[in-house]
Amino acid sequence: MGAQQQQFRCGNCGAGLEWDPESSQLKCPACKAGLAIHPQGSVNEIPFDAARESRLTETAMEVTCSSCGASTQFEPGAVAGKCPFCAAAIVAQAKAADPMIAPHGVLPFQIPRESAAAAVKSWLGSLWFAPNDLKAVAQQEGLQGIYIPYWTYDASTYSVYEGERGEFYTDQRGQRQIAWERCQGAVSCTFDDILAPATRAVQAARLDALEPWPLEQVKPYEPGYLAGFKAQRYQIQMSDGFQYAQRKMAPVIEGLASDQMGGDQNRVIGVRTQYGDVTFKHVLLPVWIGAYRYGGKVYQVVVNAQRGEVSGERPVSTVKVMLAILVAIILIWIWANAQQ
Hints:
This protein has helices at about 115-125, 135, 205-210, 240-260, 320-340, and strands at about 20, 25, 35, 45, 55, 60-65, 70-75, 95, 100, 105, 140-170, 175-195, 220, 230, 265-295, 295-305, 310. By secondary structure, the protein is an alpha+beta fold. Strand 1 and strand 2 form a beta hairpin.
């Protein structure tokens, strides 16, 4: 697939440099020499209608997994190997990366592989409903470092809402009732860096569980940050990502409407929102992703490679679930008899 780019070569021994999360610099795996990265410029917001397509770099390569369909980009010198998302062996021939909206920023890896593996092991044993032997028996297939594509959005919103406000009162029989009245109003809000995953290879809810990300530490994009890692190309377009971001904004807007309505209770019936000053960024966020086997089944797990949060699938012990249901039934029976 060609040699590593010249700027990623070790000046001492000529070996390929890789990004080292522990030292936060490029490091030679052969002679341990280090090279700091000094990104130029800043990570700026881009107007929604001003997207520009280009490659990550002119030498970026791309390979598509025939098993799950995920496309992964990497710099020459790295090899495709196994798919980070489904662990299938990649046999497709790599090709030059297709033009895309180039990343504006990257959050470099901060947690090394060993620490991520330890976090996964601890996470495996932290669920009460997990089988007792899960932590000891689960066979990890290895973690791969990959940059996941995200869109971030800024927007100002103006929302008109309709709802009902309820006030408690005591009726003639001394019983508490609630009187509802229709109400309407408008609220405004400003949103900053609302994240929307741009991949379909990992469930959005699983990636959302890795938040928060220290987005204030995002660096201007430099190919050196990807040395030794892979980067997935985005599978969800920028306009579709904004729809996901709008769904994340909706509860905040409804919360503002609820606060404004007041009352002893209230409920939002409908909201119409206008979005203005919409800007976006395309950023790459680092995760360790892998799989482990238990009971003949493969489970996916992802680790926030900046803060260490773990998200993924875990098997459930049927015995423990049934025991919990039995205990709940007993407690309900005891409570019901105590009320008689």
